[in-house]
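Q: Given only this backbone (794 positions), what sequence would you predict?
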């Protein structure tokens, strides 16, 4: 989140779109009702399903799954054509006035530079026009035909109400209400927040879904404001922490990059990732990349990291393509991988195309599962007729199960969606032989070191050099690990108090630059529990530690105009007063600068402004465009029939044959969470199993009647990848939508189906789902695929 949970109470309009906060984030949702009750806020929910969030909304609008970009580009068109834009903000704080290269173009669904053969773009033209000093050219009048503003206007021109409604299935009357509610926040005294999660990420253009919303927020001037922002509601309790720590396939802790094989030396890598300013006088914060990177290498390799050996850069793995879990499963399927360590994920239930994954795991020589429960992944080799059909005797995989502790049985920090690092203490000792994950991983490292010492082997250096100077090398304490993440002076051992102290010369070590300040010489800042809120605006500087630098609202310079005056005096976060900056939050800019010199709030961008035109950042293009899901219930793209879905998808060999057509599989299908369960693990919890004992498939009354299916009937749901049997839940919540001259029915299946838990035996919905996913992130299209449904013979 750019903002944080409590801050939602400051919103005037709350849009829940691409998420279901009432159900999946029920505690945080309390701040939505707070905004409604005490701030007269309006709640808008846009979702294929009338879900529990919708039941509390002022207005609910249905949408066909996978069409949010069309919906939001239509909103952008509406904002522009009705002049409901915060123009002062847009001119000063976005790249609206920047000139784009003359060779940038968009035609019939494709941007300039498309290479048909590679199914990829040459992104050269997706850039600004530069002057002789290498700075972007701008036209502050917004009149130049090549400025972002005019190109954007032109790009969204096609998305009028009828076109949008024809793609999304959202009735025009509903759409008008949503557009007006969003547009009402273009004034300086009104702000909207968008809350989203998987309804946007689980798509073959997930990153572009989110980006389109960020563009809406920029046009309205809603980023950097109390009650505004771009607010991702994260999944697992500590998934924010996991991503901060480099969980993503191509990132390292603090979102610095895993090196690619195109960067053979440290100098190459730093040159590729240390941006030059694109406008004069920019903070360009990533200019500090070398300090963050070298400090991270010092944390990895300790005394073995020296200027002479590029601080151990050679020992870092280099990628040639994205090796996410999907890629690994595909490699296992092809027999290209011997072993796999699965830690804290129930892969066989949660990854898409389950039948393929069963074969993938069966090809391994060994599988190690670190989990505090007996998961279906650890028992994937057990034949369970109907639910997990495998030929156990032919499986060669040896499975090792290492029981772990769970969060309540260890101390440490958990980072919530609002970036708060909150320390917690151990509640109980772990049962039986369970060990902490860190203890297990350390044990494996110690054994590897021993093996290398005794027997030698290829590439011993990284294992030998890894910095493991903990009191107990077999079991590093959370305290020692946290202090290392904060960072310290290598020579004196002093904890740094901020990332501004980090150096690129090897004199500091830091495990995650964003966490600098969380454990300083003053001690653990994460266990602070002063909930004092002096301004009444939900800013509690003494509660826990919010990265970066205990800042609660990111980009807060944008809450003021260029002269440092808050857009809205009721929403002051920082302000220029009596020749200096004052405020209730840590400034997200150099507060030594006067308002004019600091008027570039988006300090992580080399041009200091928010991007309506995203340059080369995303694979699909610098502007979002509507593409159909890979499996589309209308089988065409009404905007450009030749480019139906995203043209830059990653197709593993043979996957094209696993994609269904609307002729065979006529219904759209989506999957989602229920409050009563948390993913798969609470299916092992008796009370949760009692409250929701069984899974089901939801369908609307019209479709059920056409198919002769009654509520509670056993039905067979099939996709190109496989089929499941489950019970029908006939409902008004999912309604048929009129799309491109046809009726689209959507089915919905909860994602908690499990066959060896305390709930009734069920098929996992991931038998049906496709592994096709977002080209930037690899996240599968769990929320939009095609199925057929028929009444099953009992
Ligand atoms: N009780 C409970 N809480 C949980 C979880 C749980 O399993 N149970 N899981 C946790 C995890 S790991 C995560 S990641 C989060 C997930 O949090 P959410 O994303 O909120 O949860 P989901 O139920 O997956 O999906 C949200 C909504 O997206 C809608 N949707 C589907 N397709 C589209 C679309 O194309 N457009 C739009 N606008 N909406 C769409 C679905 O109908 C659903 O209502 O929740 C976390 N919290
Ligand atoms: N069709 C469909 N598929 C989906 C989704 C969907 O909406 N639809 N959602 C996707 C999303 S957002 C997510 S996050 C995934 C969730 O998928 P998973 O992460 O696979 O689901 P969980 O049930 O949360 O599994 C986590 C496992 O970690 C174990 N665990 C808990 N604490 C610890 C610990 O401290 N250490 C270790 N080693 N293990 C621990 C739990 O016992 C559990 O077995 O599913 C994805 N798959
Ligand atoms: Mo998740």
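A: Predicted residues:
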């Amino acid at each position: 989140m750019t903002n944080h949970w409590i801050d939602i109470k400051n919103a005037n309009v709350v849009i829940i779109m691409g998420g279901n906060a009432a159900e999946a984030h029920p505690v945080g949702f309390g701040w939505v009702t707070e905004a409604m009750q005490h701030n007269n806020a309006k709640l808008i929910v846009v979702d294929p399903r009338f879900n529990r969030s919708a039941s509390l909304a002022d207005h609910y609008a249905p949408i066909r799954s996978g069409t949010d970009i069309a919906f939001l580009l239509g909103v952008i068109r509406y904002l522009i054509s009705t002049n409901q834009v915060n123009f002062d903000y847009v001119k000063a704080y976005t790249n609206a006035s920047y000139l784009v290269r003359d060779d940038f173009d968009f035609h019939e669904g494709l941007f300039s530079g498309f290479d048909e053969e590679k199914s990829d773009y040459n992104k050269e033209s997706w850039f600004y026009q530069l002057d002789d000093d290498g700075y972007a050219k701008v036209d502050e009048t917004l009149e130049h035909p090549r400025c972002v503003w005019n190109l954007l206007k032109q790009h969204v021109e096609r998305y009028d109400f009828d076109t949008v409604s024809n793609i999304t299935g959202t009735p025009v009357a509903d759409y008008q209400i949503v557009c007006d509610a969003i547009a009402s926040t273009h004034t300086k005294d009104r702000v909207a927040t968008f809350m989203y999660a998987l309804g946007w990420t689980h798509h073959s253009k997930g990153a572009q879904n989110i980006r389109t919303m960020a563009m809406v927020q920029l046009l309205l001037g809603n980023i950097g404001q109390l009650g505004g922002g771009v607010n991702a509601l994260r999944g697992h309790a500590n998934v924010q922490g996991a991503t901060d720590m480099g969980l993503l396939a191509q990132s390292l802790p603090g979102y610095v990059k895993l090196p690619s094989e195109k960067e053979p030396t440290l100098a190459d890598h730093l040159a590729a990732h240390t941006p030059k300013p694109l406008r004069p006088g920019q903070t360009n914060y990533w200019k500090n990349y070398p300090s963050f990177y070298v400090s991270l290498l010092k944390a990895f390799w300790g005394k073995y990291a020296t200027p002479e050996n590029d601080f151990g850069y050679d020992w870092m793995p280099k990628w040639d393509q994205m090796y996410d879990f999907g890629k690994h499963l595909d490699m296992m399927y092809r027999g290209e991988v011997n072993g796999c360590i699965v830690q804290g994920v129930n892969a066989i239930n949660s990854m898409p195309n389950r039948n393929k994954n069963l074969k993938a795991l069966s090809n391994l020589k060994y599988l190690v599962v670190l989990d505090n429960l007996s998961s279906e992944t650890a028992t994937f080799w057990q034949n369970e007729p109907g639910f997990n059909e495998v030929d156990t005797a032919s499986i060669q995989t040896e499975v090792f199960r290492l029981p772990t502790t769970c969060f309540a049985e260890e101390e440490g920090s958990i980072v919530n969606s609002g970036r708060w690092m909150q320390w917690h203490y151990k509640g109980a000792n772990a049962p039986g032989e369970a060990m902490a994950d860190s203890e297990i991983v350390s044990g494996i490292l110690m054994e590897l070191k021993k093996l290398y010492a005794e027997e030698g082997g290829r590439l011993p250096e990284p294992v030998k050099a890894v910095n493991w100077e903990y009191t107990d090398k077999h079991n590093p304490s959370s305290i020692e690990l946290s202090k290392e993440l904060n960072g310290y002076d290598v020579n004196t051992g002093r904890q740094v108090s901020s990332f501004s102290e980090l150096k690129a010369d090897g004199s500091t070590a830091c495990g995650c630059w964003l966490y600098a300040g969380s454990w300083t010489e003053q001690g653990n800042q994460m266990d602070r529990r002063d909930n004092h809120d002096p301004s009444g605006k939900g800013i509690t500087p003494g509660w826990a530690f919010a990265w970066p630098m205990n800042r609660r609202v990111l980009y807060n310079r944008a809450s003021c105009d260029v002269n440092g005056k808050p857009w809205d005096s009721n929403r002051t976060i920082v302000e220029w007063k009596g020749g200096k900056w004052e405020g209730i939050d840590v400034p997200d800019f150099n507060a030594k600068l006067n308002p004019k010199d600091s008027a570039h709030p988006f300090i992580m961008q080399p041009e200091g402004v928010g991007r309506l035109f995203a340059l080369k950042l995303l694979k699909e293009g610098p502007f979002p465009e509507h593409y159909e899901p890979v499996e589309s219930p209308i089988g065409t793209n009404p905007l450009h029939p030749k480019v139906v879905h995203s043209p830059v998808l990653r197709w593993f060999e043979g996957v094209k044959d696993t994609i269904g057509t609307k002729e065979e599989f006529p219904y759209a299908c989506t999957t989602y969470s229920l409050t009563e369960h948390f993913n798969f693990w609470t299916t092992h919890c008796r009370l949760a199993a009692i409250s929701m004992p069984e899974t089901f498939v939801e369908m609307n009354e019209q479709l059920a009647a056409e198919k002769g299916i009654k509520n509670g009937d056993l039905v067979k749901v099939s996709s190109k990848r496989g089929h499941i049997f489950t019970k029908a839940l006939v409902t008004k919540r999912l309604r048929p939508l009129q799309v491109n001259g046809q009726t689209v029915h959507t089915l919905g299946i909860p994602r908690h189906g499990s066959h060896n838990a305390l709930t009734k035996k069920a098929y996992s919905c991931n038998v049906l789902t496709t592994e096709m996913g977002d080209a930037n992130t690899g996240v599968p299209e769990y929320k939009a695929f095609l199925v057929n449904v028929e009444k099953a013979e009992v």
